[in-house]
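In response to the reviewer comment on reproducibility (Comment 2.3), we provide here a single inverse folding case reported in full, input and output, so that an independent group could reproduce the run without further information from us. The structure tokens appear first.
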């Protein structure tokens, strides 16, 4: 029988991204980053003038960060142990919204942190990419963990409908972002919203127990 599959995001779920990005911007780029709403673009202003950073510059800065500064990223509290525990019960992969040419550096980065998981890169909504991963692994059940509500909606509209049930957990482990991110659970696209691995790991293990029990019960 196939194993369950856990498909997990990386930035703000396994590794802090916004906090080291903020620090790098201030130290080297002359940019002040302050999240005051759920609009990431509104958070970045040139320190000298106070003017908002243009969209094209935001993408340039993000790419530069991922090309040269990924070593600044640290693990979300409890994430490494959670991945280890979950890998004992399920196949665990990472689905991250990075350009494809950053896949190897993300893989090496996670290996350095002690997170042993195959990395898939994606751009845009994650539902279609998740669907392809599910088709490859053919799991007994799929779990999807991500920090952004739009990806949960995409997962539910693709895998949750066309490939069978998917359990979705909305988790944002970055305190700078969590208060500003709309709740996918409240919107009906996630089974739960839990922003710490101390609570999320027991929740996922309990759901794995339920899946295993259901599969073992006679028809």
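Designed residues, in position order:
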């Amino acid at each position: 029988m196939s194993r369950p599959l856990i498909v997990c995001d990386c930035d703000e779920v396994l590794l802090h991204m916004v906090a080291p990005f903020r620090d790098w911007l201030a130290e080297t780029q002359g940019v002040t980053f302050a999240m005051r709403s759920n609009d990431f673009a509104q958070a970045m202003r040139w320190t000298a003038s106070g003017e908002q950073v243009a969209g094209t510059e935001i993408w340039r800065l993000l790419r530069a960060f991922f090309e040269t500064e990924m070593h600044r990223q640290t693990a979300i509290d409890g994430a490494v142990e959670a991945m280890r525990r979950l890998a004992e019960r399920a196949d665990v992969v990472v689905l991250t919204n990075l350009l494809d040419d950053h896949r190897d550096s993300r893989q090496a980065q996670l290996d350095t942190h002690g997170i042993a998981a195959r990395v898939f890169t994606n751009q845009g909504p994650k539902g279609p990419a998740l669907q392809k991963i599910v088709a490859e692994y053919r799991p007994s059940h799929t779990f999807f963990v991500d920090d952004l509500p739009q990806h949960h909606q995409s997962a539910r509209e693709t895998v949750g409908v066309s490939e069978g049930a998917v359990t979705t957990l909305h988790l944002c482990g970055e305190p700078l972002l969590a208060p500003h991110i709309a709740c996918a659970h409240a919107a009906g696209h996630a089974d739960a919203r839990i922003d710490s691995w101390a609570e999320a790991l027991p929740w996922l293990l309990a759901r794995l127990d339920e899946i295993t029990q259901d599969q073992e019960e006679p028809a």
